[in-house]
Amino acid sequence: MAEPVKIGQASEPGEYDEGMLGLLQLIWGDGFLSPGGADELARLFEGIDIRGCEVLDIGCGLGAIDELLITQYGASSVVGIDVDPALIEGLMARAARAGLVGRMRGVKVEPGGLPFAEAGFDVVFSKDSLVQIPDKPALFAEILRVLRPGGRFIASDWLRGGTGAYSSEMMEYFRLEGIAYNMVTLEESAAALRNGGFLEVGIRDRHAWYLELAKRELASKEGSLKSTIIERLGTARTEHFIANWRQLVLVLARGELRPGHLKAAKAPR
């Protein structure tokens, strides 16, 4: 590949300190660093059987999903990768608590190609991490490379509505987030997968679901959770955190931020 693929990165220095990790889990559930929890995972895996499969999770976070993929979905093993060593430590601690050390492991990676041999996994999965990787065609080529024939790619991601220049509202959201995400549309993602050699490409827009959830999340941050957030983050950081969520709701309401599901398959032999 001409350009190294970024596997993932923290949005800003210190994002994943202990206070922020605890707070995000308070909002999204134990071990989850993106919305939807086990219910959204179930929607992602509707109609898909991964029993006995070896799974790669790109951007694994603290490993709650990886544990579920084994205990509830029957995966034989899951390898979770992330660039943040604190998250990998959290995943390994979770694996130990669950008695899954032999089947669930975390690997800290550096930006670059996926550090695995060709055709090593039955499933490549990702939950809301691909947005941080700029070169989608190169990423999809790497995913195709590490999948076995007939293997499946299953992901949710943060995507955008429309093309062209970002609005001032979206740029303000990026400023508050501390990073300009590498977003494309659902349709562009599907086209990149097809052009990259994937079959059975499917997409699902999850915008309406998350708009309503984000509104409820914001209401809780401004209300019942605010004192807890201040206790964990301090006043100034709390105000930034809530302002960020207000801007998130705004760009969701404008349709500029559109989470969605991506599914595809590698051709059988």
Report the β-strand fraction as a percent range.
15-25%
Task: Please give the order of strands in the largest beta sheet.
Answer: 3-2-1-4-5-7-6
Order of helices and strands: HHEHEHEEHEHHEHHHE
Count of individual beta strands: 7
What's the overall average pLDDT, rounded?
91
Distance between termini? 24 Å
Shape: globular
Contiguous helical run count? 10
As a whole number of angstroms, the C-alpha radius of gyration is: 18 Å
Structural class: alpha/beta
Unreliable stretches, pLDDT < 50, 5 or more residues?
1-15
Q: Helical percent range?
A: 40-55%
Mind summarizing the main beta sheet? 7 strands, mixed
Question: Could you walk me through the main structural features you see in this protein, from its secondary elements to its overall organization?
Answer:
- This protein is α/β, with parallel strands linked by helices and 269 residues long.
- The protein is built from 10 helices and 7 strands.
- Helices cover 42% and strands 20% of the residues.
- It has a 7-stranded mixed β-sheet, with helices on both faces.
- Helix 6 runs antiparallel to helix 10, helix 8 (207-222) runs antiparallel to helix 10 and helix 9 (226-233) crosses helix 10.
- It is globular, with a radius of gyration of 18 Å.
